[in-house]
Task: structure prediction
Amino acid sequence: MAKYIYQRENWTDFIWAEDKIRELFGEVKYLQGKLSVIIGTLGFAQKEASLLDTFAADILKSSEIEGERLDYGQVRSSIARRLGIEAAGLVPSARNIDGIVEMMLDATQRYEKPLTEERLFGWHNALFPSGYSGAYKIDVACYRKGEMQIVSGAMGREKVHYEAVPQALVQAEMDGFLHWLNTDSGIDGILKAAIAHFWFIIIHPFDDGNGRIARTITDMQLAKAERSPQRFYSLSSQILAEKKTYYEVLQKVQWQTDSDITDWLLFFLSCMKNALLASEQAMGY
Result:
């Protein structure tokens, strides 16, 4: 009997209950349109400042989800330099921060380009330019060469939360994922972003950085859906605010006995709705 969703035959033939997500999906679409109208009323300087703040928040919060705290000033400065934005208080930025910024901007500013294996490996290399994750040397710019477990707890009392796709299957699973991602499947762009996030997390193809890259792929897909490289809401900030539920839902759906991802889509759409509302509020609306 399958323990994890990926152990089922044709596990990526995802299904969901349209009637359960319809209302929330409609609210997200409405709020996207409303935010677009609000952005159109902003002056150039205010729009640039909002863009810079959103990108910085997304990068900072995505790293914080994984327990890594980056320097706000360095992140903001690195983004401003790469986008050519005049901003007060720019400071030098560390190599690893520049790499994370380059990954995010490559995803959002060049969203129309296919996500190839080479590009994905470039992102991974940008995340870990030293070849180390903390004190541990990891395989960089390639798929993992060993098995992967998500565990918590003290040594000797570890709790296994998830065993990822076996290493021997990672290449084939990623080939299938990238083909789907780069092909027009007729799925709405928001839903495709949600599915891409879940699919990538289930494969867990790298030694480290899987969560951050999954969220970067999500941002790339949302930019593609909106046909805009500009970001004025931070999904990662909202995921951090709902981190406990984020992991609970992922864990619940990864243990599904079928490929029904309704619960994940509901969580994702709810996060998007809350992120859009937070952006509105920050702009004074």
